[in-house]
Amino acid sequence: MSDESQVCPKCNSPYGYQDRNLWVCPECAHEWTLATVEAPKEVVAGPKFLDSNGVQLQNGDTVRTIKDLKVGGENLKSGTKVKGIRLLEDPVDGHDISCKVDGHGSIYLKCSVVKKDS
């Protein structure tokens, strides 16, 4: 038998012990073999593009700004409607959204400063 302990794959208890060819968890009574323990699966991140309210954004959505923003020396007022956004897989200087705003042209925005328009 091994003197080492194993972490229980069911409850994550660090006190798993070996009993012949099985490992046993004293806290939840789960039994396993090392062959049945899979390699950790990749953690799938939640939705990547969430607006300021936690709503999922998609390409082509219409959003509104939630605060005044300085864009190229001019102010973009809170509540400005932005149609047809494009989400960027590779952010540009921390900005997740590429869009065109009337009177301002093409700009980049962060998801945290917009809310999805209904």
TrEMBL record:
Residues 50-116 form the Protein YjdM C-terminal domain. It comes from the Bacteria. SUPFAM superfamilies: Prokaryotic SH3-related domain (SSF82057), Zinc beta-ribbon (SSF57783). Pfam families: YjdM, Zn_Ribbon_YjdM. Residues 8-33 form the Protein YjdM N-terminal domain. InterPro entries: YjdM, YjdM_C, YjdM_N. Belongs to the YjdM family. This is Zinc ribbon domain-containing protein YjdM. It comes from Bacteriovorax antarcticus.
